[in-house]
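Exercise 3.2. Students should predict the tertiary structure of the chain below and write it as structure tokens, then compare their answer with the key that follows.

Predict this chain's 3D structure.
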Amino acid sequence: MAKKSKKQGGAGSGGTPATVALTAAGVPFTVHAYDHDPNHPSYGEEAAEAMGVSPERVFKTLVADVDGTLTVAVVPVAGSLDLKALAAAVGGKRAAMADPALAERTTGYVRGGISPLGQRKKLPTVLDDSASAHATICVSAGRRGLEVELSPEDLAKLTSATLAPIGRA
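Answer key:
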């Protein structure tokens, strides 16, 4: 698999709303591109393998419905989302995974390429607190086969995210 990385990319042609938002915010980031295999069973694990990055540092973006409100959960690809913990983190009672078509329409991204950044509609966001253990983490840049690496602090700031233990191994 081809792997390409470039610093501070994205505002020009080929940029995604996520990379445009990062550039506009003046946040340091690195774009990692790789050849996406549509037959791979896990988008997140594929990204980690292709970039040669530990799965604990690669985070997937999931959209859940918490008491009728779409909510973004950002958790390590090495684990899964704890829906009860997500609901608790935003003061809700019950959470379920959102309908994929609704998640795509609301965020403006396709499944497997949903980024927590540059979404069409700003949604409440919760970042798993394990992100704080890393200097940088990788999240989708808004397209399958494209990731951005940035500090978890910058991600939390730009998405107004709450940090909470919402992932499970």
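Discussion points: The helical segments are 17-25, 43-51, 83-89, 100-107, 152-159. The first helix runs from residue 17 to 25.
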